[in-house]
Amino acid sequence: MNRHTGGRITGWDHCVQCIEVILLTRIGWRVMRRHFGSLVPELQDRNATPMTIMQTYAAIAEALRRWEPGFRLQTIQLTRSGADGVFVFEMSGLFFPRGHLGDYSVSEAKTLALGANDNNSGVRVVAA
Asked: What InterPro entries does the database record attribute to this sequence (predicted)?
């Protein structure tokens, strides 16, 4: 189910939604799954030093490797950074439509971005 519209989603759209949930959930916030999530929310309001940017790369990579079997990250690139505080990380990798079932025989190259939503009121993951 699409968490924003309530409609049915499958395939790549479902994977993007899962990645958004993984990256935007603080570790320790899910009852009965305290270990689920990523360190990205912890890094969100820190000063944008090279160390923080590198830690964000590592947090994204680790969370996706651990929690999303349908996507294998290949590259992360900071595509936007500015004085307004909005940063966009573009991620590229392979989408496995049946990865959640352990079937990695079919893959598609995909790109998505982690950054501010359209009205800059929050963070979203969107398919590029």
From this structure: IraD/Gp25-like
Is 80 exceeded by the pLDDT of residue 20?
A: yes
Mean predicted confidence (pLDDT) in 81-101: 89
Residues 90/128, Cβ–Cβ less than 8 Å: yes
pLDDT attached to residue 82: 76
Contact 51, 57 (CB under 8 A): no
| Residue 126, pLDDT above cutoff 70 | yes
Tell me how far apart the alpha carbons of residues 39 and 60 are, in angstroms, rounded to a whole number: 8
> Measuring CA to CA, which residue among 66, 16, 12, 65 is closest to residue 36?
66
* Secondary structure (DSSP) of 26-78: BTT-STT-TT-SBSHHHHTTS---HHHHHHHHHHHHHHHHHH-TTEEEEEEEE
